[in-house]
Design goal:
- The complex is a heterodimer of chains A (527) and B (1003).
- Chain A has one domain: Serine Threonine Protein Phosphatase 5, Tetratricopeptide repeat.
- Chain A is 47% helix and 2% strand.
- The longest helix of chain A is centred in the first third of the chain and has 26 residues, at 100-125.
- Chain A is globular.
- Chain A is mainly alpha-helical.
- Chain B is mainly beta.
- Chain B is built from ten helices and 52 strands.
- Chain B has a 22-stranded antiparallel barrel. In chain B, strands 10-15-16-13-14 form a five-stranded mixed β-sheet. A four-stranded antiparallel β-sheet of chain B has the order 3-2-5-6, with no helix packed on it.
- In chain B, helix 4 (280-289) packs antiparallel against helix 5 (372-378).
- Chain B is globular and about 95 Å long.
- The chains are: A mainly alpha (527), B mainly beta (1003).
- At the A-B interface, helix 1, helix 7, helix 12, helix 15 and helix 21 of A face helix 1, strand 26, strand 27, strand 28 and strand 29 of B.
């Protein structure tokens, strides 16, 4: 009624000056954007939402967003890489002086790019196109377990739910939800395994659901191994479920989970264009100590130190004699950059070699269907060499003398460090389980490069490989230099917009909300 | 609400149907000066409370149709106005005007072009004549308002000549736009904001740039007078656009019978004057790099006409060379206005076309990206002298290309400054065309109808050509090309009927009723080969040279919004002693959901002339009191209600939904309620007077972009009507003529204003799923450590920073080689350290006339408030170039265990500094008092048969020096004319001191 009155009033007046009164709303939007109706053509209202998910698990673009999402935390904490520039006069994440403005991105990237689209896809496909939802759930688990492995509790089951707005799941509940989502995914896909429905939107497997089920099984094994110390029974059950599923696990390198994005690998920009990341001293120590052929395909020869692959210690403060960050950067930028081999437009999220190492550990833990630890361990190495086109795997596997090398910093001898481990490559059937595990995880660490997130998670779970501690620890006693950083505190944006959620989530932790508190699966002992 | 609407329509229909008989007749006469009896041309003759009026011709003659009982008011700049009531036997009405400063009796132009005597208005209004405005000419005429209007805060942008200007009347209230509405000759001017900086780091897509504003496109010499309507009561008739106050600009027009040519020329020289303290070596590099600037403004106008048709034409051009090498500006404006009286003077027609074009090369920017000052300020003086790198490129044989030459590897924040000015060059081209037609038909003696329309088009074009070997964060190997075009069109039309009646000798009523329609369209294009996309061939700047990949940004936007309104206003006058003003307006806007797109708002005001109502001491020449209340509703910007996801060039749909209303809510119009009260007194035959006012404005239901957890709304923000922001303040203007003799006159005035802003609430507790937050982000900290947030209990303009933790003695805590952050009471990880807005502002204007000499000066002061020098933080973080780092001083610190030690100044500031360092260490008081303007003029004595009618020359200076200033930079300069980046300087262009010469010729 009010509306009609308005309309009459409007007409009475604007009849005079020839303007319309009804449907004003149509003059509002941006006509260059795509409407819902236009999106529905070719089912793009569903399909177009996968690309943002694929490209944000490990964010493609902009490169600085990935830099903050992962490169300036997990990629450094894993011992893979180090920024040559002591950002913020050395008071930054790498020295445990956590930069909350950076770390917001670890949280916001997956929530703003993955969870929203995954939830929208689920709503659209849940009953109508179950296989499309199956793939969606696998992608969602692939993205979100990484977030949980950084913070611990996350908002997973209540995302976007207005009645339980902002309520966190404990990490244990989140892991249970991951397993449940993988169950649904596998069931949905197995019901119509040869459907080509996803082909047009698939950036990884060309729409082949067999591969997606293998990925689901491999992911399940990764998650099961992760919780093997904290909940051995559930771990064994989930692990054996993965090992016995009829489609199997990833077996050949072609099964690996890579995203074929349309853009350059963000590391290309960070490494080549900005000179903001270089080889880590731990990588140099272990790869050069083993004379590992993969060093050539991972890193370039140092510009300043010809003939060497030269890494930088983690956690460098602004050191004398440098007046400022840029001067110190100038001294280290000539260390080893990343090789183009790791910077293809394919972003590596899970390699087949990793799956063999997971199986090796599963065997060590006595899970059925895993095979033998040694066979899987050696297959992991072979598969990784093959992935990088490096010869000499057999000799490498047989090497029982080479050990990680001591590290020398040619710029500042104060940063020199003695190798922390004497673990060799060759399998030793007589070794303790602990030594076997160190061997498996050290090789898995080499094989997973450059995916620092998983490497950092496994380092925290197992303590392997033994990577150099930070040179400067500015955490004010919160982080123990020897056992290194355990997690990232909940982000500022959550604290300010969801204080109650963060407070509940903090209660789920084993300690205060800081970087020294161990996550649920981080028990500190392996067996 | 509904009742008021019915009333409104009753008035409107009455206007069309009633038939009140009154006698209309022709009145004519001559207006002369009381001083010398000479006829006065150009005197404004208006019928009070109407839009009807005329002007005297060259011989001081006028004629007008008026009815018995009408009041004719004669007014002229610098003269005391006089009024005559038409009686049954008046046909010739002559008037004599005497010199005086009784501005209160003047006729002022109010909303919609309605003319009223100053004494009858019920709200605060302050005006400025052209002469005042142009004493010290500025490339943007609005800059001249600083210190001259109580309650208006004028901040220049840091982009140099022709830059935008931020005008804030009575404080910040809106998270969207706080700028006033500009109205030129009764018609709202479109003042689209093309681009304003928002990030302390700088905009990677071309730099932190000032896209310009419409005001800089107006020729200051075309302005006859300018009136500032401060509160919502004054502007209620303009609707939502007038929410933040209105600046009414009346432009010059041709006058019948006279033929006049005015020519004015101004030359000024600018020097960089206010910047941080560098050590000697660094200062030398800065001085070598910065140049002295120059500005030339030339304009001429011709006006004249017959009794029935008059013409005004003007042309101006401005050329400015900035203090930044290779920065230049060129501007041309023209204005043609035709006025005609037809059908026996019943129909008045005004047609005008105003056009201007501006072009800039290397307009100054702030922030770190593309800013040459980074390399200038941070140059490592141990690497030689900056001028060694004036030769900014060298042949790179490996690519066979001229590549950037610099003393070390470039970084995201630092390049060779000469490379930036030559090889990252930007150009801006802005154009504006406003054409308007105004028809005013006098139906009979009590009714006139006016119809107006304008077509107002603004185009802006920005281009940056970035050569290969530019720093890799900003451009890939082959360079980068950025183009940004905007095309804003506003079409406005209105029809207004004016009814004047006089019920009896004591009661007059005038009613205005009308309707208006506005249509705005925006077309924009962004073409940017991007930081990763790149060009196929190096240094070829063309769209077809873009690499075909998804990192290229190619984007078009098109918006159209429409708004319709009806409005009415009635003024009741009782015996010239008491006036009551009522207005009502209803708007319909396309920017709100169909169900909520209509909104109504009223205003009411009362004025009593105390000196007429009561017997008063004869020393009191005039006294009045005023009170008013107004509400104004507001629609939204385009595309807020149900926006779709955008498409990325070559990259599918956008990853995240755009800003949308919070799930489950329906947006409604914003609302502002304001109350004001004031009084004006004049004493001693108008030699002394003051105007004192108080206001209280509350802005509720603003459509906030509330921060929401990304776990609830993935984009992290949602639209929500919420909040209550209150501004309260006092405005005081005091004027005096302490000396008035034949050969010497001194006039002085003081403008004082204080505003207190309080954020009462910024969220809404009753929305399902919304976790109410206690802050709202204006400038997010990003990766730098400056933030501006609206926090419940805080005020608009609060500044947040990283603060070093201190022990109980206030000694900074330094542990394990780093300062410890004070993380108590943080908002978004930052701590409140100040507020950008002053506690009060004071302007002191003085004018001396001694024989042929005139001396004018303006002292402008802002007291209170804080400002951050991120410039100093950056310089100290990345170099040892600041003077205090050179000083051999130690700073005491303690560690967490309480053990004391010392750091050298270099260590201390080196670690506290940086763009993301402890910016809390870089806070300064924003209090400053400056000699803003000084002009010494001489009027030449001319013989009666001289070719010239008037020749005046003056020596002018602006921003000459500070009596007091704490901050390293000029706190009156802002990086943005929007809401972002207030109270922080991030490598903004240093503020300049300018000295020059003005010449005015009339013949």
């Amino acid at each position: 009624m009010k509306k009609i009155n308005n309309l009459i009033a409007c007409l009475a007046v604007f009849g005079l000056i020839g303007t319309s009164c009804s449907d004003l709303e149509e003059f509002n939007g941006n006509e260059r954007d795509i409407t819902q109706e236009q999106l529905e053509v070719d089912f793009q209202h569903v399909g177009s939402k996968y690309k943002p998910i694929f490209e944000s698990i490990y964010q493609y673009t902009p490169a600085w967003s990935y830099q903050l999402q992962q490169n300036l935390n997990a990629d450094a904490y894993s011992g893979y890489m180090t920024p040559p520039r002591p950002f913020i006069a050395g008071a930054n994440n790498t020295t445990y002086n956590l930069v909350s403005g950076w770390n917001n991105f670890i949280w916001s990237v997956p929530y703003s790019n993955v969870m929203n689209n995954a939830t929208a896809i689920s709503e659209l496909t849940d009953t109508e196109f179950p296989t499309l939802n199956g793939v969606n759930l696998i992608l969602k688990v692939a993205a979100m377990h990484r977030v949980s492995d950084v913070f611990g509790p996350i908002v997973y089951t209540n995302f976007g739910d207005l009645t339980n707005a902002g309520v966190y799941d404990s990490q244990e509940n989140a892991y249970n939800a991951f397993f449940a989502d993988l169950d649904t995914a596998v069931t949905n896909l197995m019901a119509d395994i040869d459907s080509p429905k996803f082909a047009a939107f698939d950036l990884s497997y060309g729409g082949d659901y067999h591969n997606w089920v293998k990925l689901a099984n491999s992911l399940r094994l990764r998650l099961a191994i992760r919780i093997s110390a904290v909940d051995p029974a559930l771990a064994k059950a989930e692990g054996e479920k993965a090992l016995s599923q009829s489609e199997g696990l990833m077996a050949g390198n072609a099964d690996g989970f890579f995203v074929n994005g349309s853009l350059d690998h963000p590391l290309t920009v960070i490494d080549n264009s900005w000179g903001d990341i270089r080889m880590n001293a731990s990588m140099e120590s272990i790869l050069s100590g083993y004379s590992d052929g993969r060093i050539m395909s991972y890193f370039d020869e140092s510009v300043d130190h010809p003939g060497q692959r030269k890494g930088i210690r983690n956690g460098l403060p602004l050191q004398a004699p440098f007046a400022d960050e840029l001067a110190q950067k100038a001294a280290y930028i000539g260390f080893s950059a990343l090789n183009d081999g790791v910077k293809t437009p394919k972003v590596q999220l899970m390699t087949t070699s990793e799956v063999y190492f997971l199986k090796a550990e599963a065997a060590l833990r006595g899970w059925s269907g895993a095979g033998t630890a040694q066979a899987n361990y050696e297959m992991g190495i072979t598969t990784s060499f093959e992935q990088h086109g490096v010869a000499g795997a057999a000799a490498y596997i047989a090497d029982n003398t080479s050990v990680p090398a001591n590290y020398v910093d040619p710029v500042n001898a104060d940063n020199n460090a003695t190798a922390l481990s004497t673990i060799t490559v060759a399998w030793n059937a007589g070794a303790t389980n602990e030594e076997k595990l160190e061997r498996i995880i050290t090789q898995k660490w080499i094989a997973m490069f450059p995916e620092g997130q998983e490497a950092w998670s496994e380092f925290r779970r197992t303590g392997y490989p033994k990577i150099f501690p930070v040179v400067s620890n500015q955490s004010g006693g919160i982080v123990d230099t020897a056992i290194q950083i355990r997690r990232i505190p909940f982000v500022d944006s959550e604290k300010s917009t969801n204080a109650s959620g963060v407070s509940t989530a903090t209660g789920f932790l084993n300690g205060p909300d800081n970087a020294g508190t161990r996550l649920w699966w981080d028990t500190g002992s392996n067996f | 609400m509904k009742k008021i609407k019915i009333l409104l329509f009753t008035i409107f229909s009455l206007m069309l149907s009633t038939n009140i008989i009154a006698q209309e007749k022709s009145i004519s006469g001559t207006v002369t000066s009381k001083f010398d009896g000479e006829p006065l041309p150009g005197v404004s003759v208006v019928i009070e409370n109407t839009t009807r009026g005329t002007e005297t011709d060259f011989d001081g003659k006028y004629s007008i149709k008026a009815s018995v009982g009408d009041v004719l008011t004669f007014s002229f700049v610098g003269m005391k106005s006089t009024s005559v009531t038409i009686t049954a036997n008046s046909s010739t009405v002559n008037a004599q005007l005497e010199e005086g400063d009784n501005i209160l009796d003047e006729v002022v132009v109010t909303a919609l072009g309605i003319k009223k005597t100053r004494k009858s208005i019920t709200y605060a209004a302050q005006d400025i004549k052209a002469a005042e405005l142009n004493k010290v000419k500025q490339t943007n005429p609005i800059n001249s308002l600083s210190g001259k209007i109580a309650g208006a805060s004028i901040t220049r942008s840091a982009s140099g000549a022709g830059g935008s200007v931020k005008v804030l009347i009575r404080g910040n209230s809106s998270i969207g736009n706080n700028q006033p509405l500009y109205v030129v000759d009764g018609i709202p001017l479109s003042n689209p904001s093309a681009s304003q900086p928002g990030d302390t780091f700088g905009d990677i897509n071309g730099g932190n740039r000032d896209g310009g504003d419409a005001l800089s496109l107006i020729n200051p010499d075309d302005i006859e007078s300018l009136t500032v309507l401060k509160g919502a009561s004054a502007s209620a008739l303009y609707g939502s656009a007038g929410l933040n106050g209105v600046i009414l600009i009346t432009t010059k027009k041709g006058k019948s019978g006279s033929f006049k040519v005015d020519f004015s020329s101004s030359v000024t020289a600018e020097t960089a004057a206010y910047m941080m303290d560098f050590n000697d070596a660094a200062q030398k590099n800065v001085d070598t790099f910065l140049e002295s600037g120059s500005t030339y403004i030339n304009s001429f106008s011709i006006s004249g006409g017959t009794e029935n048709a008059q013409t005004y034409f003007s042309y101006s051009n401005t050329t400015a060379n900035g203090i930044l090498p290779s920065n230049s500006m060129k501007q041309h404006t023209f204005n043609v206005k035709e006025t005609a009286q037809l059908l026996n003077d019943k129909l008045k027609l005004t047609a005008s076309v105003m056009g201007s074009s501006q072009s800039f090369t290397n307009r100054a920017i702030s922030g770190l990206y593309f800013n040459p000052l980074v390399g200038v300020y941070g140059f490592d003086t141990s690497a030689g002298s900056l001028s060694d790198y004036a030769n900014y490129e060298e042949l790179d044989v490996s690519r066979n290309i001229m590549s950037q030459r610099w003393f070390r590897g470039t970084s995201d924040i630092e390049q060779n400054p000469y490379w930036i000015t030559h090889r990252n060059q930007s150009t801006d081209a802005n154009k504006k065309l406003v054409s308007s037609l105004n028809l005013n038909y006098t139906v009979n003696d009590w009714l006139s109808i006016q119809a107006r329309g304008t077509y107002d088009k603004t185009t802006t074009e920005f281009e940056r050509k970035i050569y290969a070997t530019t720093e890799a964060t900003l451009a890939p190997a082959n360079g980068r090309y950025i183009v940004n075009q905007n095309d804003f069109t506003q079409m406005y039309g209105d029809v207004i009927a004016t009814v004047n009646t006089k019920f009896n000798d004591d009661l007059t009523v005038s009613v205005i009723a009308g309707a208006s329609t506005t249509r705005n369209t925006t077309e924009s294009l962004v073409a940017d080969s991007g930081t990763n996309g790149g060009l196929q061939f190096a240094n070829v700047f063309a769209y077809q040279n873009f690499n075909a990949n998804a990192s290229v940004n190619f984007r078009q936007n098109s918006y159209e919004t429409r708004g319709n309104s009806i409005f009415a206003s009635a003024t009741f006058g009782y015996k010239d002693k008491l006036y009551v003003d009522v207005t009502a307006r209803n708007d319909w806007t396309s920017t709100l959901p169909d169900d909520n797109n209509s909104f109504f708002y009223p205003s009411i005001g009362v004025t009593g002339i105390l000196s007429e109502l009561f017997e008063m001491n004869e020393k009191i020449s005039f006294a009045k009191a005023r009170i008013s209340y107004a509400e104004v509703g507001n629609g939204f910007a385009a595309d807020q209600i149900n926006p779709n996801r955008s498409i990325n060039f070559g990259g599918g749909i956008n990853n995240t939904d755009p800003l949308r209303p919070f799930p489950g809510t329906t947006p409604k119009p914003e609302r502002q309620k304001s109350f004001e009260i004031g009084t004006e007194w004049k004493f001693f035959n108008n030699r002394l007077g003051f105007d004192l006012g108080y206001y209280n404005t509350s802005t509720i239901n603003q459509y906030f972009r509330v921060p929401v957890s990304t776990t609830i709304v993935a984009s992290g923000v949602a639209g929500l009507n919420a909040g209550d922001i209150v501004n309260k303040g006092v405005e005081l203007t005091v004027f005096a003529v302490p000396v008035q003799q034949d050969n010497f006159k001194w006039t002085t005035s003081v403008n004082y204003a204080t505003n207190k802003n309080e954020i009462l609430s910024i969220s809404n507790d009753n929305v399902q799923g919304l976790i109410p937050t206690d802050f709202f982000t204006i400038s997010g900290k990003g990766v730098n450590t400056f933030g501006s947030y609206l926090v419940k209990g805080g005020s608009f303009g609060d500044i947040y920073a990283h603060v070093i933790k201190r022990d109980s003695n206030g000694t900074p805590i330094y542990d394990s080689g780093a300062f410890v952050i004070d993380d108590a009471n943080q908002v978004d990880g930052l701590t409140k350290v100040g507020n950008a807005n002053p506690d009060f502002m004071l302007g002191w204007n003085n004018s001396f006339e001694f024989k042929n000499f005139t001396i004018d000066f303006l002292i402008d002061g802002k007291f209170g408030g804080e400002t951050m020098s991120m410039t100093q933080a950056i310089v100290e973080g990345f170099s040892n170039n600041s003077a205090r780092e050179d000083a051999n001083e130690n700073v005491d610190v303690v560690n967490l265990a309480g053990a004391a030690s010392t750091l050298t100044a270099q260590e201390y500031y080196g670690k506290a500094g940086g763009r993301n360092g402890f910016t809390g260490e870089y806070m300064y008081s924003a209090t400053n008092v400056r000699l803003a303007e000084l002009a010494v003029g001489y009027n030449f004595n001319l013989s009666a048969d001289s070719f010239f009618k008037r020749v005046k020359a003056s020596l002018v200076g602006s921003n000459l020096f500070f009596f007091y200033k704490d901050a390293p930079h000029d706190p009156n300069v802002s990086l943005s004319t929007g809401n972002a980046l207030q109270g922080v300087d991030v490598l903004g262009l240093p503020s300049t001191r300018s000295i020059g010469l003005n010449l005015n010729l009339t013949f």
